[in-house]
Write a structure and sequence with these properties.
This protein is α+β, with helices and mostly antiparallel strands and 211 residues long. It is built from 8 helices and 4 strands, in the order ααααααβββαβα. The C terminus is likely disordered.
Length: 211
């Protein structure tokens, strides 16, 4: 079987104009083999995969598949205890790898969008970004993105600001209302202490959602 490196060498020598006999002398390969690979071109040789060796876990794989098919959320620690009760003497690491490979993939769930009538509701949130400015490219700074999204149309108004204090929040609300041409009946606040306490939120300390 010709290795990939030998195949590349054969093709390079053929492109240089060497004869099959010369390539055979240079590589030590049979001329018939060289002709075959020149005709085939650059195609990685196909190797037959080695059969998997049985491990201490192999006899227990049918049991694992059955348990995970019935209860997909079983932890590896729980399965390890069950297997040891059945005579398994192997370790946790190989079991974890096998469980990861055979655990059924959960079906994607479908979200039901919560619809609101026009003018009923909006949601406000702050997101933070780390960036640099051209006047001080060596200094990394945090900027905040205030966003207000209307619940019915999903129309969004957003603005980058330097602070997350109460005065900034109020100014952004006024600007958003002016852009929308009205004020929604309800506003939901997600992870915003400022809206209730008038404090600046620390980006490294996540808070609970407030509605």
């Amino acid at each position: 079987m010709v290795r990939l490196g030998e195949l590349v060498m054969i093709l390079d020598l053929a492109r240089e104009g060497l004869s099959v006999s010369a390539i055979s002398r240079r590589t030590g390969l049979d001329r018939k083999t060289i002709r075959k690979y020149i005709a085939r071109g650059l195609e990685a040789p196909a190797y037959t995969p080695r059969p998997a060796r049985p491990t201490l876990l192999t006899p227990f794989e049918p049991y694992l598949r059955e348990r995970l098919q019935t209860f997909p959320d079983l932890s590896t620690r729980r399965l390890l205890r069950e297997l040891k009760e059945r005579g398994y003497t192997g370790g946790y690491t190989i079991l974890k790898a096998v469980v990861r490979a055979i655990r059924p993939t959960p079906s994607p769930s479908f979200e039901c969008r919560f619809e609101t009538p026009p003018g009923k509701q909006a949601q406000v949130d702050f997101a933070f970004f780390k960036t640099t400015f051209t006047d001080e490219p060596e200094v990394e700074r945090i900027v905040w993105l205030f966003s207000m999204v209307l619940g019915h149309s999903r129309m969004m108004w957003a603005r980058f600001v330097a602070r997350q204090d109460l005065q900034t929040v109020l100014r952004c609300h006024i600007a958003a209302f002016d852009s929308f041409g009205g004020v929604p009946e309800q506003i939901l606040y997600d992870r915003m202490k400022t809206a209730v306490l008038g404090e600046i939120e620390d980006p490294d300390q996540p808070t609970q959602g407030i509605a």
